[in-house]
Amino acid sequence: MAQFQDNKKKESISNYNTFKVFQDIYGGEAGEENYWMIKPPVKKASLGFWASLFIFIFILSAVGFGIYPILSYILKTPYPLLVIAEDSMRPVIEKNDLILVRGVVNKEEIKPNDLVVYAQIVNDNQTLTVQRVVGVDKARGQMTVRSEAAEAVGTTIENKQVVGKVVGEDKPVKLSFIGKVVSYLAGK
């Protein structure tokens, strides 16, 4: 009887279809290519993903477009960032450097050796110029400025022309790479 049971076991195992089990587990036909690979379900982008992306882009644009007004408020000047267009202030400030400018509330605080930004009319266009103060005439409300070039001659300007002072008198705060990018984008 024991031999009969062993034969019956062998018969049931030999009739067992392993390919059928494999197909049930992996969901493919034995003849198909890559039938053994388990493919993860593909998830479509949910509403949460798109909402997160929208919020990220909104914050990024608010920071990007909002930095100028924020700096304008903090530094108390309408021109907090300037890109230098000429090499007249070398070696202190190079061409295409982006500099920070702070407003001057009281013109009396301007003293010789300060780097000032002042407005002037050139060919019917208002331009901003950065130069070093070499003398101050408080009685007339004027100051003498010049560039860093060796042959530069001083120019007299009025105190009301001054827009601000460069942040960091001895070592100006400047961002060369960003200034070059801005200058390139402006086509200058």
TrEMBL record:
It comes from the Bacteria. Coiled coil: none annotated. Keywords: Membrane, Transmembrane, Transmembrane helix. Residues 76-167 form the Peptidase S24/S26A/S26B/S26C domain. The chain crosses the membrane at residues 47-71. It comes from Candidatus Kuenenbacteria bacterium RIFCSPLOWO2_02_FULL_42_16. Pfam families: Peptidase_S24. This is Peptidase S24/S26A/S26B/S26C domain-containing protein. InterPro entries: LexA/Signal_pep-like_sf (IPR036286), Peptidase_S24_S26A/B/C (IPR015927). The keyword Hydrolase does not apply. The keyword Iron does not apply.
